[in-house]
Specification:
Elements: E1 2-4, E2 6-8, E3 11-13, E4 20-25, E5 30-36, H1 40-59, H2 62-78, H3 80-91, H4 95-112, H5 115-118, E6 122-128, E7 131-139, E8 142-146, H6 154-165, E9 169-173, H7 180-191, E10 199-201, H8 206-214, E11 220-224, H9 227-239, E12 243-247, E13 252-256, H10 262-274, E14 284-289, H11 292-307, H12 327-342, E15 346-349, E16 368-371, H13 378-381, E17 388-391, H14 397-406, E18 409-410, E19 412-416, H15 420-429, E20 434-437, E21 453-454, E22 457-458, H16 465-471, E23 473-481
Parallel strand pairs: 1-5, 8-9, 8-11, 9-10, 11-12, 13-14, 13-19, 14-17, 16-17, 19-20
Antiparallel strand pairs: 2-3, 4-5, 6-7, 7-23, 12-22, 15-16, 18-21
Helix pairs in contact: 1-8, 2-4, 2-7, 3-4, 3-7, 4-6, 10-11
Length: about 500
């Protein structure tokens, strides 16, 4: 059986830990590999390699770093099918979903290729007599990334290409549930010309995470995952003096106005609620139709669409939705569905009993659709992270907007309407980090930044785009005066009316 190891100083490394975890094929339930679970010793070695390599890499001209990013982009594009297959086999998502994941990750690499322009500083001539001022951005140092199972390729690619392009070294701790694609991409990064030690991978669990958070030579930590874990990482990481960005949980609402095109709404919800089996932080898990008539039309339109979803392993070209990632996830989702029924919600489509011949041990769950969900129910409050859509009926627009704004999460929200005034009011007043108008999953393109509000984000910076540049650099401002420009009697102090300042 294959064992997934670590990647340090440009090569696969077995590590010193004797702990291992199982990697499953979610479609069959079979163990397909083992992953080495590193701890403090593995993190120490990876960080030492990164710290040693960073000064030379940080001093490398941005144009040269961009050249390596260009080569890396080319290698990723030429290996998309291989990487998508590897990703789907451990995560379970369909091949089209996996290809889409790779495409969104490659977008960030393309953004990082523009690093010479992105790192341009600011210059002000003559801020006082003979005095100039300018600002530059310099690398943070060693950056670590802790990433989730649901996008094993894309989310890491949202982090390290920008960090590397800015001149940092990087240590990645990917999810231990689907680790293989990260290691393959690490090899491509070395093949692109990245110096040894600049990028390293340590596989592991909480032991590795804690070692990262406490390590004195790690300067910044980027995280994507659940809110509980994100708050822990932010609190412990900042307590040890690190810069931390933690992108966390979500409960994304899609408001349906009476004038919306219901066919378009149904198409949007099928893709956004059930794509990737609902295992994404930007999945729409709450539909909020405004008015009873709108709600009835929505449920009547959605019901046959959800019932006809093709659930199958990624190897079936007709598959529209694969399994969830683990048996524990499957049981957790089933439990929340049961809670919704017990609380009085109407389970219009029940996907719990789906059985696939030949895949009886797989972690499959059919699409589920709830109607008449209320805001006090656990299926409304909690992030289910599965193929479950809740319809919460709103009496009017203000009630719908209130649901969006009152929820503890503020990652994404959308409104479907033909009315520009309503749309403008919604995206102005919604207390949400990413808003879509007739767009169900408003994930920004790579040159804009990704992040939420409220308990969907801990830290001050979003991910990729210019926010990513700011997170991965420190600002330094210089004020200069040269001896030839100093006149006799110059005053080196700040005071009202002074012509010269220090």
């Amino acid at each position: 059986m294959n064992t997934v190891r670590h990647y340090v100083s440009g090569d696969i490394w077995a590590g010193t830990s004797d702990r291992f975890g199982d990697v499953y094929n979610p479609a069959t339930g079979a163990v397909t590999a083992q992953v080495a679970l590193g701890g403090a010793a593995e993190v120490d070695r990876a960080v030492a390699a990164a710290k040693a390599a960073q000064p030379a890499w940080g001093a490398t001209p941005p144009a040269k770093r961009a050249e390596i990013m260009f080569a890396f982009r080319g290698l990723l594009k030429s290996h998309v099918e291989e990487l998508a297959e590897m990703l789907s086999s451990e995560h379970g998502k369909t091949l089209p979903d996996a290809r889409g994941e790779m495409a969104r990750g490659i977008e960030v690499v393309e953004f990082a290729c523009g690093i010479p322009q992105l790192l341009k500083g600011e210059y002000s001539e003559g801020v006082a007599s003979g005095v100039d001022s300018f600002a530059i951005r310099q690398p943070v140092g060693v950056v670590a990334g802790i990433t989730p199972f649901n996008f094993p390729a894309m989310v890491p690619l949202w982090m390290y290409p920008v960090a590397l392009a800015c001149g940092n070294a990087f240590v990645l701790k990917p999810s231990e549930r689907d680790p293989s694609v990260v290691l393959r991409i690490a090899g491509l990064l070395s093949e692109a010309g990245l110096p040894d030690g600049v990028f390293n991978v340590v596989n592991g669990d909480k032991e590795a995470v804690d070692a990262i958070l406490d390590h004195p030579d790690i300067d910044a930590v980027s995280f994507v995952g659940s809110t509980a874990v994100g708050q822990y990482i932010y609190t412990r990481g900042t307590a040890s003096g690190k810069r931390v960005q933690a992108l966390c949980g979500a409960k994304n609402h899609l408001v349906v106005m009476p004038d919306a095109d219901m066919g378009q709404v149904a198409d949007a919800l099928i893709g956004s609620a059930y794509g990737s089996a609902g295992e994404r932080c930007m999945a729409v898990s709450v539909a909020v139709p405004v008015g009873e008539e709108t709600a009835d039309r929505l449920v009547d339109t959605l019901k046959p669409r959800v019932e006809s979803l093709k659930v199958a392993p990624y190897t079936d070209p007709a598959s529209e939705m694969g399994p969830v990632v683990t048996r524990q996830s499957l049981e957790r989702i089933r439990g929340l569905i049961g809670e919704g029924i017990d609380a009085g919600a109407d389970l219009v489509v029940d996907g719990r009993d789906i059985r696939l011949q030949g895949y009886e041990d797989g972690f499959f769950l059919g699409g589920c659709l709830f109607d008449r969900v209320t805001t006090d129910m656990s299926i409304y409050r909690q992030e289910i992270f599965g193929p479950v859509l809740s319809v919460v009926r709103a009496a009017g627009y203000e009630d719908a907007l209130g649901m969006v704004n009152d929820h503890e999460y503020g990652n994404g929200a959308a409104i479907f309407t033909r009315d520009g005034d309503t749309a403008r009011d919604f995206f102005t007043r919604a207390k949400i980090g990413m808003v879509g108008v007739n767009v169900p999953i408003p994930v920004p393109v790579a040159y804009h930044s990704f992040g939420g509000w409220k308990r969907s984000l801990f830290g001050d910076h979003y991910m990729h785009g210019m926010e990513g540049i700011r997170f991965n650099t420190r600002l330094k401002t210089m004020t200069t005066r040269w001896p030839e420009g100093i006149k006799e009697g110059a005053v080196f102090a700040f005071h009202a009316g002074s012509e010269t300042k220090n």
